[in-house]
Amino acid sequence: QLKFWTGKFGEDYWKRNKITPEKTENGIKAYQRIFNNIKPKSILEVGSNIGIQLTILRKLLGPDVKLYAVEPNKTAFTKLTKNPKLKLIKAYNCDGYRLPFDNNSIDLVFTSGVLIHIPPQNLADITKEIVRISKRYVLCIEFFSHEPEEKAYRGHRNVFFKRDFGAFYLDHFPQLKIVDYGFLWEREFPQFMDYHWWLFEKESRA
Q1: What is the pLDDT of residue 206?
Q2: How many angstroms separate the CA atoms of 130 and 106, rounded?
Q3: 23-69, pLDDT tens digit by residue?
């Protein structure tokens, strides 16, 4: 999986997905809905690519929120860190299985279209890291399926997995409780392609 996303396919991915004013404005509307009752002071995106989601959050939340990023693809990481508008506190060119952050160090940790590309046997490892680092909130924005399933993705197999990610988090991490969840209908939010989202809060922050 890492070779797949750090190689040619990963290069093609960021070339297809550019930051545009239309995506930013549409994304602001989506995150306004998701962040309806929360105001995190620090945010980490795991698998940030060139920073589309972080660009949206910077514009929505303003200059004071501390943004952090992790991205394994070197070219995407370079573009991410050279974007002056993001004003990242710190970014790492690494995968999500061993995140270089302390326990309970970031208010909100999230993925957007990343867990769907994690093999089922590795999903517990990366989500464990996400929960470990979160000081208060975990946000998951991914494709939904009632039952775990593998689907073809742009002609490739074993790189795209759908499931009920919300249930996975709750079943594996009893310290999480659901705050809210929703559906980003593609007709209203074209770039999110019918993603579902789940927002959790950690009950224990020790």
Answers
A1: 44
A2: 10
A3: 899 999 999 999 999 999 999 999 999 999 999 999 999 999 999 99
Burial class (CB in 10 A: 0-12, 13-18, 19+), 149: exposed
* Inter-residue contact 28 to 59 (CB < 8 Å): yes
Strand order in the sheet with 66-70: 90-92, 66-70, 42-46, 106-112, 134-142, 195-202, 176-184
DSSP 100: S
User: What single DSSP character describes residue 183?
Assistant: E
Q: Where are the alpha helices (DSSP H) in the chain?
A: 2-6, 8-16, 21-34, 52-61, 74-81, 123-133, 165-172
Name the band, by pLDDT with cuts 50, 70 and 90, for residue 152.
confident
Tokens of 46: 């795991």
The count of other CB atoms within 10 Å of the CB of residue 179 is 17
Locate 199 and state its tokens: 């927002």
